[in-house]
Design goal:
It is found in: Membrane. This protein is an all-alpha fold. 82% of the residues lie in helices and 0% in strands. The chain has one domain: Cation efflux protein transmembrane domain (Alpha-lytic protease prodomain-like, Up-down Bundle), CATH 1.20.1510. α1 runs antiparallel to α4, α2 runs antiparallel to α3 and α2 packs antiparallel against α5. 36% of the residues are buried.
Length: 236
């Protein structure tokens, strides 16, 4: 078990570092280029960074042996570890759901208020790099995760898959905008990006919903197990 937790810690450290890089790149380049779309993408990576840090801290806490647990002097029980993991996934699901709603609302507002101006050339370069980086991170985590990976690591993988799809949708929006500009329909290019973000947000809303649903079901099952154990203990 300790080797498995050590492997998951390394994957979460890698994920955290990748989140930091994408957040810095997105926010920095977005402000420099004056692109709110790219800034928003960086802001999502910043949320991912905070969630990855939380997951890493929890994994380290769960895997601590009794001799190193200064709080209680006891190793974390399997049931307590399962509860903590489920709570982390629940928080991740809620945070990702909020990002989906905010991105959908922001794109919808842009769609009905004149669209978004896009520096197509710069945006395309950023989009390609961003999609390639997110996809590479997702595949790396997926490849090195064991079949019995914790729910925390599975949620981390889903988070990167969602980031990849959203980034790909934004890239497609940039491509459509560039195509419209090249074919003499530049006045419609401003609507390409918000439309793609709306479609991606709506399509991928199922991911956080599933994360939240599974976490709640697992927490309820663990609560029932604890009640049964206490009931049998009283009867004994």
């Amino acid at each position: 078990m300790s080797n498995e937790y050590a492997k998951e810690r390394n994957l979460l450290k890698f994920s955290t570092f990748a989140c930091f890089c994408f957040a810095a790149l997105g926010i920095g380049l977005g402000i420099w280029a004056g692109s709110m779309v790219i800034v928003f993408d960086g802001a999502y990576s910043l949320v991912s960074l905070l969630l990855s840090l939380m997951a890493l801290v929890v994994t380290i806490y769960i895997s601590k042996p009794a001799s190193k647990n200064k709080t209680s002097g006891k190793a974390v029980s399997a049931q307590k570890a399962a509860v903590i993991e489920s709570l982390v996934v629940l928080i991740k699901g809620l945070a990702v759901a909020i990002v989906c709603v905010v991105s959908f609302a922001s794109a919808l507002d842009a769609l009905f208020t004149g669209g978004r101006d896009v520096n197509a050339g710069f945006a395309l370069v950023f989009g390609v790099v961003n999609v390639a980086g997110c996809l590479a991170t997702y595949l790396a985590i997926k490849k090195h995760s064991s079949e019995g990976a914790s729910t925390i690591l599975k949620a981390e993988s889903s988070q990167w898959l969602m980031d990849t799809v959203i980034s790909a949708a934004v890239l497609v929006g940039f491509l459509v905008a560039w195509g419209l500009m090249m074919t003499g329909y530049g006045e419609y290019a401003v609507y390409a990006d918000p439309m793609m973000v709306i479609l991606a947000s709506a399509y991928f809303a199922t991911v956080p919903v599933k994360m939240i649903k599974d976490s709640v079901k697992r927490l309820m099952a663990l609560a029932e197990q604890r009640e049964d154990a206490q009931h049998h203990g009283v009867l004994a």
